[in-house]
Structure formats: C-alpha cells, structure tokens
Specification:
Layout: H1 2-13, H2 16-24, H3 30-48, H4 60-68, E1 80-81, E2 88-89, H5 95-108, H6 121-131, H7 148-165, H8 167-177
Antiparallel strand pairs: 1-2
Helix pairs in contact: 3-4
Length: about 190
C-alpha cells in the first residue's frame, strides 16, 4: 500500500506528456518480463510432456502465451506488422517525439519505464562505444577538409619563406639596375 502511495506521488510530479504516454502505454517492468519468460517456459515444458488425455488440444500453448504476455500493444516507438492485413504500420511516435519523451523521462528519473527506443540513453552509450566519435578527419591517417584558405596556407607560407630568403639578392639586383629602371620582376 505504501508503495502505491509513492507511485502516485511520483506520477503527480510528471509532466503532462509523460502522463499521457504512460496512460496510453502503461510501463512494463523488466521483472514482469522475466517472470513472463519463466512462466511461458514452465507452461511449454508441461505441455511438451505426454498428456494423460490423448484427445487434448495442443494449441492451448499459444493461447496461454498470449494471455500471459506482458503487454497487449506493440512498442509505440517501432513499426509493426498488422496481424490480419500483413501491412507495416509506422511507429506511433516519430524519432523527434521519441527523443523528447526520453529527455523528459530522463529528467524525471523514469526513463527505465519507457519501452525500448533507439533514442534512449543506454542505446546512445552503446552506439558511442561501438562507433566512437564520428568526426571526419579525426581518425588515423585522415585529414580534416577545412576551408580553401586553410588547405593552401602551407604552400603559401612556404613560398613566402623562400621569397624572404631570396630577398637580399633581389634588393641587390634592384640597386644595380638603378632603382626600378629595366626591372622585370614586378609582382603580378
């Protein structure tokens, strides 16, 4: 009873978006899923054993499994196939709305109650571990493209350095020719 009061207090502090989401898609605890898996495996084991009634219907396994399923609705964050028509339905919540819900849930400490989504913190951490920081040019042997002036800067500085090293001889030639008379090396 005390636990229910705590849940009610937590629910009263949640934002409206999260309350609407949890009203439409009640949270499934992971413990409930593990209990469901244990229950279905024990039922399946009992059904596999030879029955005393030879006329017993062996299709009861599927009906028992569906009645013990932890949820009657598909994950609203994933697309799903309609059981009758076989057509695929888009997710109820777009990726942007999923990200908004995850941010709200994370801020309120109830992210674990959301169904699986690729926008979740856990999935993001996993993806970052697998792919690393994906900035072009930060890998081994890669270069960042940069702007045109950044790409050509090295060659321009080298050309300028060579010109400065040859400057004393250039000044000497200038003086010999009479301060610009007959000078052919003007900059373009």
């Amino acid at each position: 009873m005390a636990q229910q009061v705590e849940y009610v207090k937590v629910a009263q502090t949640l934002p409206g978006k999260l309350l609407k989401f949890f009203a439409r898609y009640p949270p499934i605890l992971r413990s409930a899923i593990s209990q469901h898996d244990a229950a279905t495996s024990s039922i399946a084991a009992s059904l596999e054993s030879p029955s005393s009634n030879p006329n017993a219907d062996h299709n009861t396994e599927s009906t028992i499994q569906t009645s013990l399923a932890p949820s009657n609705y598909p994950n609203p964050f994933k697309s799903h196939k309609h059981p009758e028509t076989g057509r695929w339905h888009d997710p109820v919540y777009s990726l942007r709305r999923q990200a908004d819900l995850v941010k709200l849930a994370k801020a309120n400490g109830v992210e674990d109650l959301l169904p699986y989504t690729t926008k979740g913190s856990e999935e993001g951490r996993k993806r970052r571990e697998e792919q690393g920081l994906r900035v072009k040019g930060t890998g081994v042997g890669q270069r960042v493209k940069g702007r045109a002036w950044e790409r050509t800067m090295k060659s321009r500085l080298e050309k300028r350095k060579q010109a400065m090293l040859g400057m004393p001889t250039l000044v000497q030639q200038w003086k010999q020719l009479g301060h610009g008379r007959g000078w052919k090396k003007f900059p373009k």
